[in-house]
Amino acid sequence: MPNDIWNTLMNLDRRWVYLVIGLVTFLPILVTVDTPVQITSEVKSVFDRVESLPEGTVIMVPMEYSPDTMAELQPMARAVLRHCFSKGLKVISTALQIQGVLLIEQDLRTVANEFDKVYGEDYVFLGYKPYPDIVILNMGENFRLPFPNDYYDNDLDDLPMMAGVSNYSSVACIVNINATSGVDSWINYANGRYKADLALGVTAVIATDYYAFLQSGQIFGLMGGLKGAAEYERLIGRKGVANKAMTSVSVAHVFIILFIIIGNVAFFASGRGKRA
Amino acid sequence: MEQVSLGTMFWMTVAAFLTFCIFSFLYRDNPFYRFAEHLVVGISAGYWIAILYHTSLTDLWIDPLVASVTAFGTAEGSVAGKTGMLIVNITPGAIGVLMFSRFFKKTSWISRWPIAYYLGVSAGVALPLYLQGFVIRQVAANMMDPRSIFGMIFAGGGAADFFQGIGEIIIIIGSICGLAYFYFSAEHKGVFGGAAKLGIWILMIGFGATFGYTVMARISLLIGRLNYLIEWVRALNGFFGS
Questions:
Q1: From CA B178, how far away is CA B199, in angstroms rounded?
Q2: Cα-Cα-Cα-Cα dihedral sign, residues B183, B188, B193, B198
């Protein structure tokens, strides 16, 4: 009889799994629970670096994400921008991912408005240009090469913030929020070719790929997925969407681990392990 | 939540409907899912073409070309300089046009020229820097001074130093064993076989970490959509409740 249970589990319609995962993800959103989030050194180092910059310093926050990855990276981008603006830093931003340009422009404008920041004086959005590799290389020479005008078609030389800002050597560091393989180009060209200090905020799927660059010192910090965003939100003392999502993430992870254990036990207990 | 306008409510509802269409695939394939899927592909293609036309074709080719042609009508600059600029601005377009030779069987071989040019330039720009950033710097990062590692472990500098020292050793051994697994010119036997076996375990741990992160990524995307649907329901309440 117990064998029947295991066989039933092995033949369970996967839609039941989807339903359970959907419910355990959805229900925690409805309740307010402050799930503990451990701060990792790789996220702390991004925060510490931004925190150490004096008011008026120019920082670059290029953002490359689109609607399909905004759930992970938008909270992270907003947290970083809030930190920069609250510190009185001046932000240069680009959006080298074609499908995210409007989204990123909206994020930048929304956060800037929260702090009453003035466009052209406190932040500049350069927008999108095709062929990210070439654009990143050209910005290393001069921002005006790929972007003679900003996103709103203003001449860069007409923007007060851009006076004296020529290339990566004019910015204290780059915090690249990126959901694409374009991260490699920032490492290779901005850091490799032009020695710009670089930190990354990436989706969880690609986060493990970039720990090697952290260890080698090519990047000074790394934020991975929604967890990285939740850590940064805590560090700036303003818990937002990412922290609220951490309960759902934790509960869903527990259930996925349970499913993996049950699936493996059922696999061997039903005798399929022997046949395999 | 503040009340939204009719237009915003309409588009929020369209987005919510499309979200449900995509979610419906979890039950089974159906026309609603296919509609949403095709819509995404179609809109993405249209959006890309429009953006690339304006940011690539117009900005990078047509506008400079027109400017270099109209420059001949002005008194500024020498004719030789203007001709040079004209040639510079015609060349990328001419090379690009060669790609269309693929549409004709007899001339399709010509399309290899722009491809060769593109590959040559890309390789020339990328290879040295990729080699530097992804190979040399990574290898150098594994060449650590053993004295500093043992210093971290045994000098009594605290738990953080101790675990960092252990971590450095794991990185060195893990890298060597991982590479040993991919060395196929020697049989995986004896000490070498043991190293390769440890290498595959190291790789498995790496894949496990990636899997864990991937699960978090997917759950995060689901949360993103669920948050949106909650926001949509609240907006509906606000819209019809007022």
A1: 4
A2: positive
ipTM of the complex: 0.89
Query: What is the DSSP track for B18-43?
Result: HHHHHHGGGT---HHHHHHHHHHHHH
> How many Cβ atoms from other residues are within 10 Å of residue A93's Cβ?
24
Shortest distance, CA B159 to any CA of chain A (angstroms): 15
Same-domain pairing of A20 and A68: no
Question: Chain A 27-56, CB below 8 Å of chain B: which residues?
Answer: 29
Residue A192 sits at the chain B interface (C-beta within 8 Å): yes
Task: Find the domain containing A116 and state its range.
Answer: 41-238
Segments making up each domain of chain B, as ranges: 1-103, 108-141, 142-242
**What is the rounded CA–CA span in Å between residue A181 and residue B135?**
17
Minimal Cβ distance to B133: which of A192, A215, A225 = A192
Put simply, the answer to whether B223 touches A99 (Cβ < 8 Å) is no
Assess whether A181 and A157 both reside in one domain.
yes
CB–CB contact B216 A253 (8 Å): yes
Phi and psi angles of residue B27, each rounded to the nearest 5 degrees, phi first: -80, -55
pLDDT tens track, chain B, 242 positions: 567 889 999 999 999 999 999 999 999 999 999 999 999 999 999 988 998 898 888 988 999 999 999 998 888 889 999 999 999 999 999 999 999 999 999 999 999 999 999 999 989 988 988 899 899 998 898 888 888 888 888 887 788 888 888 988 998 999 999 999 999 998 989 999 999 999 999 999 999 999 999 999 999 999 999 999 999 999 999 888 76
Residue of A nearest to B55 (CA): A129
